[in-house]
Every structure is written in structure tokens, then in C-alpha cells.
Amino acid sequence: MTDATNQTQMQEAQMGDYFALMKPRVMQLVVFTALVGLVVAPVGVNPFIGFVAVLCIAVGAGASGALNMWWDADIDAIMKRTVNRPIPSGAVQPGEALAIGLTLSGFAIVLLFLATNALAAGLLAFTIFFYAVVYSMWLKRSTPQNIVIGGAAGAFPPMIGWAVATSGVSVESVLMFALIFMWTPPHFWALALFVKSDYGDAGVPMLTETHGRTVTRKHILTYCVPLVAVALWLGFTSIGGPFYLVVAVVLNVWFLRGCYAIWRRTDADSEADNHAVERRTFVVSIYYLFGHFGALLVEALLRNYGLTSWAGW
């Protein structure tokens, strides 16, 4: 193998490390929900402007991820599921992560402001600040409600997408925000139930550690009930419709059944089957969110062809 080939492979590995720093899995969700918020808005956007806007939101999400990994490097090195992240593994230095996060944040906010409007840029700036400072630096290590309040950071992207198109906020964008906000606690608490030792080892006051798994199970079901109400309410707004409502009913029955099953279980039940129900419900929660926003996207496409609307019912 030649020296040039070795050099190329080394460069590719480094690029992969920097990309991982921006939490690409989280970025996928951010990009998708922001795109849906943009597309379902009642005001059309130039495709190039829309592309730039979504790119800025994605870069902003990546910046938030880099800043979060910079701050959480100490606990990431302790938890099994995060020990191989770029900083604790030694692939990226903390100072590099901080510089990347700050640079990308500034780039995304300024470009979004220049390409769209002040509200969209302001919401993006607040989202980055909320995730990097309010959640990562304060809530995550200080309260068992970290996931509840911190969930707002992941809920803003569709609202930003809507603001790009309309320069405003509406009931529809608030409900899209609320859907993600209410979904976040049961989604992450289901995860916490089967990676329970990680958070305790790192000293993170996750609800499973501070109040126990029985209380966590109750909270999962408690948050799932209003989540169902928000999801169905969204179906009767201007961006909803018959198709969305059918999908929402199916997904909410599916997810609610999983949360109810978790609520009924004991620690002995979970240990006996290696947390099978909790793991399955966590996976269902991922389909749940993508399914709702996917259905909103389909409704928007159908409306463009005059094929479905509550006005005709």
C-alpha cells in the first residue's frame, strides 16, 4: 500500500470523527422535522432558499452536538454507550470541538438571517443556546426533569422551518413543537430503563436514578397520554387531514400500548427478558415521531394536488 493511500485513509478517518462530533443521527431528525415545518407552511418558499434554510438548521444542529460533546466529554468517557465518541476516544481534542461548535453556530445563524428572516435566525440561535447551555451545562446534571425541559431544544426545528416560510408563529407550528416536546420524555426514559447503570455511573440525575424505575414507568405513561391528545389535535388543523389522522390513530395506539405495557411491568419482569418491552417501545417511539411528520408531509403533497382536505368533509 502506497504512502498516498495511507494518507488518504487517514484523512477520511479524521473527517469521519469530525462528522460524528455533530451527532448525525440527531441531525437526521432535526433536518426532517424542519423540512416538514417548511413544506407544510401555507406560504411557498423558493427551493434554493428552502435548501439554504434547511442546511443552516442542520449545521446549527451539528454545532449544538459539538458543543454538547465538548461539555460532556467527562461523563461520555464513563458511560458505555458514549465512551467511543470522538473526544473520549481521543480522536478529537476538546478545544477543537469547542471551536467547531462556536464557528458553525455563528455561520448557521448569520446565513439563515441573511437568507430568510430575523425570527427564523433568532429561533435557531435560541435553540443552540438552549441545548448547549441551558440543557447541557445546567439541566442535564442538576435535575431529574432534565429530559422534560431539555426536550424543547429538539422541538424547535419544525417551528424554525415554519418561521422561514411565514416569518411568524402559529397554532400549527406550536403543536408541531408540542408533539416533539411531549414525545421526548417517554422516548428517552424508555432508553434509560435499559441503560440504567450508565447514567448512575456518570452521576447524571436521570429519573431512573433519582426516583427509581417504578416511578419512571409511571411518568412514561403519564406523559404519553397528553402526547396522544397533541398528536390528534394536530390532525384537525390546517396542516392535518384524513390521511394524517388515520396514521396518527394507528401510531398512538401502538405507542400507548407500549407505554402501558412498561407501566405494568416490574423490575423482575424487565430483568427476566432483558428489558424486551422497554427496548421495543423505544424503537416504536422512533417510528412514532417520523410517522407523524411523514404523514404531515404527505398531507401537504396531497393538498398540492387538491386530493385531500378537511374542507371537503
Automatic annotation (TrEMBL):
InterPro entries: Protohaem_IX_farnesylTrfase, UbiA_prenyltransferase, UbiA_prenylTrfase_CS, UbiA_sf. Pfam families: UbiA. It catalyses: heme b + (2E,6E)-farnesyl diphosphate + H2O = Fe(II)-heme o + diphosphate. Its EC number is 2.5.1.141. GO terms for molecular function: protoheme IX farnesyltransferase activity. Converts heme B (protoheme IX) to heme O by substitution of the vinyl group on carbon 2 of heme B porphyrin ring with a hydroxyethyl farnesyl side group. Interacts with CtaA. Carbon 2 of the heme B porphyrin ring is defined according to the Fischer nomenclature. Belongs to the UbiA prenyltransferase family. Protoheme IX farnesyltransferase subfamily. This is Protoheme IX farnesyltransferase. It comes from Octadecabacter antarcticus 307. The lineage of its organism: Bacteria, Pseudomonadati, Pseudomonadota, Alphaproteobacteria, Rhodobacterales. The gene is ctaB.
